Amino acid sequence: MLPYGRQTIEDDDIAAVAQALRGDFLTTGPTVKAFERAFAETVGARYAVACANGTAALHLAMLALEVGPGDAIVAPSITFLATANCARFVGAEVVFADVDPTTGLMTPQTLADALGRLDGRRLRAVLPVHLRGDAADLPGLKALAETAGAVLVEDAPHALGTRTAFGNEAGLIGDCAHSAMATFSFHPVKTIATGEGGMVTTNDPALAERLRRLRSHGMIRPEGADPWWYEMPEVGFNYRLPDILCALGLSQLAKLDRFAARRRALAARYDAALAPLAPRVRPAERPAWSDPVLHLMSVLIDFEAAGRTRRQVVEALKARGIGTQVHYIPVHTQPYYRQRYGELDLPGARAWYERCLSLPLYPGMEDADVDRVVEALGEALRA
């Protein structure tokens, strides 16, 4: 069976975890700081703060910005639930932005439309999602956000290793050159894995310190106080990432270049192999400024022209040992958000959802696996 995504765990990863288990710390110890330093250096940010998972990273970002009741954030509808839910965790409202139907990304135009639906609420943050690993238009989105008095918080779990080129400015996702913070996830299907885990990067020392405090119950240890003394100026959470998982993260991070190169090679092979299936099947479009390390190999399929439903295609592929997934059901259509905000027509999100399918993509795949997937997809559409 070829799943749509899968971790790559090797003997040295296992050895790194075993060494951590033999150490003095299982929870918060020196490996956490080592992982944070290495991650910040890898993406080009000043600070990185590890946490329990990608959802915790988003929640911490909202807390660090002091987003709360009466505030609003803008999130694209094509994303995982957590991008929107993080606002509700702190009592803020969500304004859903549409997406480009060929990339699935929020654009300056769709953000401008969303800003027109704020209805008097104070905008605090805009959360672009680097879907699949392709970068959103950060300078364009930042300009609009700043005009509205808000900052960008990049939801970047798909985009570790993705390079950008905005004009003459080269960058890496996570360097926070255009944003207040960027959040990452280390779920097993992501580019590197810690089992569960997350990270927030920032260049703002005050935000970094606040993130560290909020991930550990809101506790501080005042300078000069007794060694056992701690205080809690505000309520925080237990969102710490254990040393043992950070040991795995460090080992995985050392392989990022290799993982990235393999993902790029597999994506290129997919592009070539899928070409004969056009126009009924085509890879999601990739913006000119984005050089992605793809987390997802998303294709757009004209199911109606093929005379097949998506479910028929998914089941036909599964019968041949090929797993797929849909990324994502538009969040604004979820019962909770429909009940809260009513019906919302976002045609780009609808068009993306109706056509998208994620094919297997992970470093452990062989070149022949790509050919097998594409051959099976062609047969499933012709059946």
Task: List descriptors.
single chain; globular; 3-stranded antiparallel β-sheet; 14 helices; 7-stranded mixed β-sheet; 383 residues; alpha/beta
Describe what this molecule looks like in 3D:
The chain has 383 residues and is α/β, with parallel strands linked by helices. Helix content is 39%, strand content 15%. It has helices spanning 11-21, 30-43, 54-64, 81-89, 108-115, 138-147, 205-214, 243-253, 256-274, 303-306, 310-319, 335-341, 347-355, 367-382, and strands spanning 47-51, 71-76, 93-97, 122-126, 151-155, 163-166, 169-172, 181-185, 198-202, 281-283, 290-291, 297-301, 356-359. It has a seven-stranded mixed beta sheet with strand order 1-9-8-5-4-2-3, with helices on both faces. It is globular.
Low-confidence runs of at least 5 consecutive residues = none
Task: Give Rg in angstroms.
Answer: 21 Å
Order of secondary-structure elements: HHEHEHEHEHEEEEEHHHEEEHHHHEH
- Could you tell me how far the N terminus lies from the C terminus, measured between alpha carbons in angstroms? 21 Å
| Number of helical stretches of at least 4 residues | 14
Morphology: globular
Instruction: Look at the helices and sheets and give the structural class.
Output: alpha/beta
- What's the count of strands? 13
Rounded mean pLDDT is: 97
What percentage of the residues does DSSP assign to strands (E)?
15-25%
**Biggest sheet layout:** 7 strands, mixed
Helix content: 25-40%
Strand order of the largest sheet: 1-9-8-5-4-2-3
